[in-house]
Backbone:
């Protein structure tokens, strides 16, 4: 299956060409560091590109201050990680091993060079992606979670980091590794904790606090102006971000949970053109996010738009959940849909404790060699069931209808029916969940009555509802809350809404085809309409 980047062990390192180095030297400045100098520390802003001319640089473990990985950086190599593209924070402390001479280029200047010299950009982005891939595969990050299995707030941070492709390390409460980290940071060994580097212990951890530390959620200037604000970071929103940046528009993508949206929870997409062996939804959209950042598109996350106003000058003002505001000449609504909370007895008490709305590696860890239940008859439910069948003792798929033909791709339904680790219960529904602190069983009802079924995890992937409450006063919605577009509401294009300057793409748009490829296509095409609106 296709994944992000290329494994560093397989990738032949391609050095920057002499002309690239000459461009760096002209744009930057030479800096010399003595042996043992900490060049960057965890949490420092990624404000420059560092190319090594002489000497050696190592990655440092912030808790032991020893070398963290065996390989080091030498002449013709460069410091950097993926956060360089969007101006985030350094996650890895780096220190000189010997006297070292480097070329340092300010980040804005370097981004301009990368846009002007695509061959150099390709090399740099490939290496940065490979480094991130190594960290993700190894579970090796300076964001350290202690007590993930025991504490729901720590699990929320793990889900947030995992879905946003940020590497983290998780230690069990009471383990030797957890004790060593806790001691180095002067925190209790018996208390769950979130730690970033050595000096940042997060009190009452929330995704927003962690995002600030990672540099994912930087404060915008109040009433900052953009050409277009794209609300939603799923396939449609990220595709719009790629094309907006490529066309030179000042674009901001706002996402309230994780880049990737609902598609980011799909463990394996096999019917997206160009990936014959399949690709996870998270990897697919992450590639798009990197492309968008390369073109200068900015991301704000986790941030929710709670209000949208049309101003007298026909611009728009979007207000975030933290009270901050930005202005834009156009708005693209790409908020997609979210799974509804079903009317199941006991559901609220067990959400996050065995009841989940995504099936990624993070959730799959909690149902190894144990029975699992999936609710839903669509592609997302089918992909989740196939993914979970690799680790669960058995997967029961609960479907209200009598067939999968109307809602699931044929290749996927055939695979489910042939898998001995999967069973499908048609014309059934889950009516209750049971457990003391964590899910233990579910009650399934069919025409014959009810029965209790053991389950360590329940995945709900049904009943998708649009996220459009914040738009109801500005544009026309259909009876189900989906956004009406096109000629039927006087729109100037197939994606234009009843309010000039607001466009809708992807699953949130009424009568759209609910597939990843369709969402990507709509997000790409809508930017031509945005451009025309802004220009006129």
Residues:
């Amino acid at each position: 299956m296709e994944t992000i980047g290329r494994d560093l062990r397989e990738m032949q390192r391609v050095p920057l060409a002499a002309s690239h180095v000459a461009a760096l030297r002209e744009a930057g400045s030479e800096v010399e560091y003595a042996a043992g100098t900490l060049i960057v520390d965890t949490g420092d802003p990624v404000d420059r590109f560092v190319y090594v001319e002489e000497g050696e640089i190592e990655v440092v473990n912030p808790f032991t201050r020893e070398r963290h990985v065996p390989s080091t950086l030498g002449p013709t190599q460069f410091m950097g990680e993926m956060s360089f593209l969007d101006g985030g924070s350094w996650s890895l402390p780096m220190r000189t091993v010997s006297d070292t001479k480097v070329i340092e280029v300010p980040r804005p200047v370097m981004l301009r060079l990368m846009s002007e010299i695509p061959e150099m950009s390709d090399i740099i982005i490939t290496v940065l992606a490979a480094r991130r891939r190594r960290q993700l595969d190894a579970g090796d990050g300076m964001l350290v979670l202690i007590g993930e299995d025991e504490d729901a707030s720590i699990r929320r941070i793990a889900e947030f980091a995992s879905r946003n492709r940020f590497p983290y390390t998780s230690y069990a409460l009471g383990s030797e590794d957890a004790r060593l980290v806790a001691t180095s940071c002067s925190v209790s060994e018996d208390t769950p904790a979130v730690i970033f580097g050595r000096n940042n212990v997060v009190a009452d951890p929330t995704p927003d606090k962690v995002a600030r530390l990672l540099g994912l959620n930087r404060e915008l200037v109040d009433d900052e102006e953009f050409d277009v604000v794209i609300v939603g970071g799923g396939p449609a929103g990220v595709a719009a971000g790629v094309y907006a940046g490529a066309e030179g528009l000042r674009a901001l993508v706002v996402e309230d949970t994780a880049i990737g949206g609902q598609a980011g929870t799909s463990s394996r997409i096999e019917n997206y053109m160009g990936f014959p062996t399949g690709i996870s939804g998270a990897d697919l959209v992450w590639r798009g996010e990197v492309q968008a950042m390369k073109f200068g598109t900015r991301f704000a996350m986790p941030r929710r738009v709670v209000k949208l106003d049309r101003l007298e000058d026909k611009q728009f003002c979007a207000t975030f959940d933290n009270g901050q505001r930005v202005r834009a000449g156009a708005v693209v609504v790409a908020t997609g849909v979210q799974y509804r909370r079903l009317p199941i007895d006991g559901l609220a008490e067990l959400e996050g404790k065995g009841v989940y709305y995504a099936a990624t590696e993070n959730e799959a860890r909690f149902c190894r060699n144990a029975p699992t239940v999936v609710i839903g008859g669509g592609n997302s439910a089918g992909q989740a069931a196939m993914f979970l069948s690799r680790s669960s003792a058995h997967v029961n798929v609960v479907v209200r209808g009598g067939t999968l033909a109307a809602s699931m791709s044929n290749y996927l339904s055939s695979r489910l029916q042939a898998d001995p680790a999967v069973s499908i219960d048609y014309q059934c529904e889950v009516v209750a969940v049971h457990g003391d602190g964590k899910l233990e069983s579910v009650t399934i009802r069919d025409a014959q009555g009810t029965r209790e079924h053991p389950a360590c995890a329940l995945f709900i992937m049904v009943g998708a509802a649009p996220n459009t409450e914040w738009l109801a006063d500005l544009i026309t919605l259909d009876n189900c809350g989906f956004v009406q577009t096109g000629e039927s509401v006087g729109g100037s294009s197939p994606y234009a809404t009843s309010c000039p300057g607001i466009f809708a793409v992807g699953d949130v748009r009424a009568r759209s085809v609910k597939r990843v490829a369709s969402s990507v296509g709509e997000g790409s095409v809508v930017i031509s309409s945005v451009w025309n609106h802004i220009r006129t």
About this structure: The two ends are 45 Å apart (CA to CA). The first strand starts at residue 29 and ends at 33. The first helix runs from residue 18 to 27. The CA atoms of residues 167 and 326 lie 30 Å apart.
